[in-house]
């Protein structure tokens, strides 16, 4: 497979998502890392975004609630190269009625090679990486062969 570089500028665009049982964990992580987060552009699904703005005093671009399409909005922004990082504290012990949306969001992160943290330890490693504060060329699979597979020569 061929790859192409996609430049991620020093100020990253970070999507923050948490299931209800994980919102307190994500908020605690964000409070601990507030000074690091304020240098980046933040996106979040509905309730999570409102909580972050109120508790942290940071500007957050709020999308719809996850079950109402927010997960899919973030996935679309990932596919459109408008999100650089996904922090998604999902609850592995609680069934989710919108589980297909959750899987689709995680799939988009993998398809487009987006760094993804699903727990605090991984989020800590990502936010503290020296790559967070400088430009980085993320390699993305070149899907031209896929999108052009039915075109006539």
TrEMBL record:
The active site is at residue 71. InterPro entries: Methylgl_synth, Methylglyoxal_synth_AS, MGS-like_dom, MGS-like_dom_sf. Substrate binds at residues 19, 23, 45-48, 65-66, 98. PROSITE patterns: METHYLGLYOXAL_SYNTH, MGS. SUPFAM superfamilies: Methylglyoxal synthase-like (SSF52335). Its EC number is 4.2.3.3. Residues 6-153 form the MGS-like domain. It catalyses: dihydroxyacetone phosphate = methylglyoxal + phosphate. One of its GO terms (cellular component) is cytosol. One of its GO terms (biological process) is methylglyoxal biosynthetic process. Belongs to the methylglyoxal synthase family. Catalyzes the formation of methylglyoxal from dihydroxyacetone phosphate. This is Methylglyoxal synthase. It comes from Chlorobium limicola.
């Amino acid at each position: 497979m061929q790859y192409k570089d996609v430049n991620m500028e020093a100020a990253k665009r970070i999507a923050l998502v948490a299931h209800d049982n994980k919102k307190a964990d994500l908020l605690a992580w964000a409070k601990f890392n507030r000074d690091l987060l304020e240098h980046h552009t933040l996106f979040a699904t509905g309730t999570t975004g409102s909580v972050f703005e109120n508790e942290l005093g940071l500007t957050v671009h709020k999308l719809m609630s996850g079950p109402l399409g927010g997960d899919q909005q973030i996935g679309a922004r990932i596919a459109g190269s408008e999100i650089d990082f996904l922090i998604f504290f999902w609850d592995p012990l609680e069934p989710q009625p919108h589980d297909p949306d959750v899987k689709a969001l995680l799939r988009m992160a993998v398809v487009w090679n987006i760094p993804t943290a699903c727990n605090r330890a991984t989020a800590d490693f990502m936010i503290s990486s020296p790559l967070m504060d400088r430009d980085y060329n993320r390699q993305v699979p070149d899907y031209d062969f896929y999108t052009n597979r039915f075109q006539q020569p």
